[in-house]
Amino acid sequence: GQLDTTCHAFVGETVVLPCTTTPPGDLTLSKSMLYWQIGTKQLVHFFQNGQDSLEGQDEKFHGRTSLFLDQMKHGNLSLKISNVQLWDDAEYSCIYRQTESHQTKKSTIKLNVSAPPRIEEPPSPSEQNQIPSGSPVDVPNLIVLPLSFLLLVPLGLWHL
């Protein structure tokens, strides 16, 4: 199966993997099954007979996945994953099956997970001395101020 879409998220974020039925009609959720899975064995989320059925869910996703239950009957089968982790980086399959008509619809969503952007640390004083004249030397100092302030406040409270 080819990719339908690609999503990007940073570690710790919440991401929505989009999946909708076309045409968007009213779905009978009590007669539907929805699988979200990675490959053929890793179950990410399972919905059947109008409710979540998470007994077989992979424990790495435990408590982190949810569907848009109020929008599902209108064809929104998207999956929300909270607190995204690096190991969530994978190709997900959204498989919707109607139990009566045995119609199956499948889409594939690639999730790319990146580490959160690093906060640059201020240069050490030895590096500051090497800055050529004419460049803004005061910029790194602005970063140092809040750090020292945060360290002083707890110490100050400690002595009260």
Tell me about this structure.
With 160 residues, the chain is α+β, with helices and mostly antiparallel strands. The chain has a domain at 5-114: Sandwich (Immunoglobulin-like). It is built from three helices and nine strands. The chain has helices spanning 69-72, 125-128, 138-158, and strands at 5-10, 15-17, 32-38, 42-48, 51-52, 65-67, 79-81, 90-98, 104-114. It has a six-stranded mixed sheet, with no helix packed on it. The chain has a three-stranded antiparallel sheet with strand order 2-7-6, with no helix packed on it. The radius of gyration is 24 Å and the shape is elongated. Mean pLDDT is 81; it is low at 137-160. It is found in: Membrane. Pfam families: V-set. Keywords: Disulfide bond, Glycoprotein, Immunoglobulin domain, Membrane, Signal.
List keywords for this structure.
single chain; 160 residues; alpha+beta; Immunoglobulin-like; six-stranded mixed β-sheet; three-stranded antiparallel β-sheet; 3 helices; 18% helix
| Pattern of helices and strands | EEEEEEHEEEHH
Described by strand count, sense and barrel closure, the largest sheet is: 6 strands, mixed
Strand content: 25-35%
* Proportion in helices: 10-25%
In CATH, what is the homologous superfamily of the domain at 5-114? Immunoglobulins
Overall outline: elongated
Mean pLDDT: 81
Number of helices: 3
Keywords: Disulfide bond, Glycoprotein, Immunoglobulin domain, Membrane, Signal
Organism: Motacilla alba
Pfam family, one: V-set
InterPro entries: Ig-like_dom, Ig-like_dom_sf, Ig-like_fold, Ig_sub, Ig_V-set, IgSF_BTN/MOG
